[in-house]
Amino acid sequence: MRSSALPATAARGRRRATGTRTVGASIAPRWWPLLALTALAAVLRLGTLGSQSFWYDEAFTPVHVLHGSLGATLHALVHTENTPPLWYVLEWGVSRALGTGAVALRLLSALAGIATVPVAWAIGAELTGRRAALATAAFVAVNPLLVWYSQEARAYGLFVLMASLALLCFVRALRRPSGRRLAAFAVSASLALLTHYFAVFLLIAMVGWLVWSALPKASPGELQPRERTQNPKNLPRVACAVALPVIVGLALIPLILAQGGHGTQWIGAWALQSRLEAIPQYFLTGYMGAALGHGVELLVLVVILAGFVYGLWRTLYAREERGALIALTVAAAGTLVPIALAVLGADYLAPRNLVAAMVPLSALLAIVTCAQRTGRAGMTLAGLLALAFLALTVDVDLSPRLQRGDWAGVARLLRSAPPAHAIVTVELGAAPLEYYLPPLRNMTRSSSVTVTEIDETGYAPLRSGAGNPPAPGFSFSERRDIHGLLVYRFTSPAPVTISEQTLRRQAITPATVAHPEVLVPVSTAGKDN
Q: How many angstroms separate the CA atoms of 56 and 360, rounded?
């Protein structure tokens, strides 16, 4: 005994003698993977933050929602949007400080996406341990879907962060339901609800777990989970914690009714079956997954299934089983409940509204693939999946065909148009062109305008006869393809008066595919009839 104790005592003495260096040396190996993954997430999100054009929803925010005063912005939110107010309030502050450029308006989402990585690490660590923490953070850092929405000037990036914070606070409160931890869950859950209405589906599972864990055991012989104790204070604490997000949710109901589903008409026009098929495409290969082809989706799926099968085959420890069950429950509630409601008729199911479920799904995948008994093979499979996600993310940065429509490129072409011109575009092009070509305005119904040039923009499939002149006196000038967005230009040597109905009928993309819009310079307002 003495001989074994002496080396240990000497080792402790050496550690005390070199305390600062020992602590520094122990911290660096422990935390460098998280620091590296967070830095990688920052590079992926900030490095190309302004390289893609605004698409419709992004451009709609600065054109129609953000105003000089916060009150006017909130008024526009009620009448034009279908999202809670938190992101818009923060974005209004950003726009006042940094302006309304693409980088400025996307910065909030990018910072939220970067911050989600350490939160994901903490979720994995709380659920099972360091191996799951590393894999969960890696998946979140490079996942093409999460990178995509971290570079979009909309609420989804902040939604992912707030929902992840709520998940982290929930897991901690579930393990030890102290007043402080339950208060943290109450606040984070409320912030998630104030960011996106679909947070409620994720919170349903979390609240259910918390309430169940606080209930007294049914019989003296029941085997209790670690966090389920007989402390009589737990149930009142949980009830108070749950009450705050419930109150916030109820307070949002008048706003939901006032918004009345603005901007959700496209959901009903998109067949439910197609939307259900798009969900795994989003989750496997990101927002533009369909353009990559089913072969890439299958390749990613094979790696995921290999990790799952191998992890389950090697069997999980009890803590790993419980962590996987928690992640599975939250992810399932965040995806399956909205799907069930859509099938039953309450159809607000858009694949992008499920984006926050990607974090608990990532945690589930990390727990099973990187279970202790999988050893190095499990970590290797997780690494291969992270590399596949990273390759897809980089491919989006390098391939315009996988990016948002290049409406900025279309605008650069149209800047050469004479003052007296009209633009016929698809609905998704209206707000971006208004953003990049101010000042434009929507042409009112049953009016007419006198112009010498008509620019028709859209995308395939094209209307039959798309290249024909829209009215007598006009002749075809040029056709341009800007990364899939098409521009047909028609010119006339003399001004021609043409009606809004005629222009709308000449949209090169059929109205059955995309709703047409007609834009004219504000300077032509006095010429409308």
A: 29
pLDDT of 281 reads 83
Residues 358 and 507 in one domain: no
Domain match, 379 and 291 both: yes
pLDDT band at 266 (very low <50, low <70, confident <90, very high): confident
CA 49/CA 487 separation, integer angstroms: 26
Name the more confident of 253 and 438: 253
Contact (CB, 8 A) for 252 and 71: no
pLDDT of 217 reads 62
Digit-coded pLDDT (tens) for 359-413: 999 999 999 999 999 899 999 999 999 999 999 999 998 888 889 999 999 999 9
Query: CA–CA distance from 186 to each of 190, 198, 207, 230, 363 (Å)?
Result: 6, 17, 10, 22, 22
Rounded to whole angstroms, how far apart are CA atoms 515 and 431? 13
Q: Print the domain residue range for 280.
A: 32-217+227-402
Within a domain: 5: no
Segment 283-294, tens digit of pLDDT: 887 776 666 666
Last residue of a domain, one of 371, 402, 433: 402
- Side chain identity, residue 279: I
304/418 same-domain check: no
Buried b (16+ CB within 10 A) or exposed e, 414-437: beebeebbbbbbbebbbbbbbbbb
Confidence of residue 2 (pLDDT cuts 50, 70, 90): very low
Q: Is residue 305 part of a domain?
A: yes
- Reduce the DSSP state of residue 447 to 3 states and report it: coil
Does residue 15 fall inside a structural domain? Answer: no
Return the C-alpha torsion angle 240, 241, 247, 253, nearest 10. Answer: -150
Distances (CA, A) of 182 to 119, 133, 193, 214, 327: 17, 22, 17, 12, 19
Report whether pLDDT(203) > 90. Answer: yes
Q: Look at residues 402, 426, 449 and tell me which one is the last residue of a structural domain.
A: 402
Q: Are residues 357 and 274 in the same domain?
A: yes
